Fold each of these.
Amino acid sequence: QKEVEQDPGPLSVPEGAIVSLNCTYSNSAFQYFMWYRQYSRKGPELLMYTYSSGNKEDGRFTAQVDKSSKYISLFIRDSQPSDSATYLCAMMTTDSWGKFQFGAGTQVVVTP
Amino acid sequence: NAGVTQTPKFQVLKTGQSMTLQCAQDMNHEYMSWYRQDPGMGLRLIHYSVGAGITDQGEVPNGYNVSRSTTEDFPLRLLSAAPSQTSVYFCASSYSSGGTEQYFGPGTRLTVT
């Protein structure tokens, strides 16, 4: 079983809707939680990063971490066609710095 | 800054051939890493380096070698290519101290026949 699980989608939403993405994990030692966006045939780019638990907001993006449930979420408000991409979660422990564990990625399609 | 650059963009190898995937960064990042990305598997860490002269294995290191003689370059060598190594390879870099923001290169698409 993989340490980080993520539904591959695709997740199709109309423009303007809220996109809700999540990952579950099994390693309770994960402390760093990241969300990356990857456009087709491009390298991933970091969207949000959270240390330990709680919420973080950046513009239309909100990241949440629930360590008790081993569950993280990314919400995209007022979605745009330009948000169509694959979103990957990534996690890391503090004593294995540099060893990032990625989810498989969820493909999101925002239709005009 | 060019950021993270990777060459070649595409490569076709025959089984048993060897080759080196090049990765360079001009951001003076101490941390560099190599991932492979396969459908349904996400990004899997192959090898990483926390500074010149220091490398360590990731999740899927078998069949790959790395070395880090300079801060800027982190080449990945395939010793004897196998069809199972058909994948998209990404190089990434970040600052070492709390460097959770990794900058990824554009990737190398490798096919082994």
Amino acid sequence: EIVMTQSPATLSVSPGERATLSCRASQSVSSNLAWYQQKPGQAPRLLIYGASTRATGIPARFSGSGSGTEFTLTISSLQSEDFAVYYCQQYNNWPQTFGQGTKLEIK
Amino acid sequence: QVQLQESGPGLVKPSETLSLTCTVSGYSISSGYYWGWIRQPPGKGLEWIGSIYHSGSTYYNPSLKSRVTISVDTSKNQFSLKLSSVTAADTAVYYCARDPPGSGMDVWGKGTTVTVSS
């Protein structure tokens, strides 16, 4: 099973600033990586798939990069609605696996 | 607009079988894609349980494989989850999701809370 490790566990950033979240895979997942946003009491929402393709309706301030084992989600100019928990997920191999999440909180 | 809705008992007794159904609207399951179940214990992260292809082929999380069965009923446009011999550790919010190949899980149900308790 591929282990996904996200860092940091918690990230404190001020509104309007940039946030950079990291995800590392224990072995190569090519570009078969997705990022999700989850707010309290809500289902996860797909933000990025294919490591760098924004899902339908996702604002351009969200961008993804990386391939192989190292991935990054960048949120430029944080808005109040962006403070949430973010998960990465690999779907290159079965079983699909999620990272443990990064909580993005207001500084 | 594609929508998914989970349904099933919110309370299950230890050692019994948890049964949930996901009803899909706005898209025909038989048209394709994988359809998955994911759970989230209180205060914890996401755990993939398993996925089923529209044709019926399945993939399960090895950690749950001995207790999980996922099935599909294309006539009702539904797919279902059964998890046997449940314990308190199976208490979680259970989500169903559409899982197109190569695209991540793009549509999710709102989730249903299942508590395992006597």
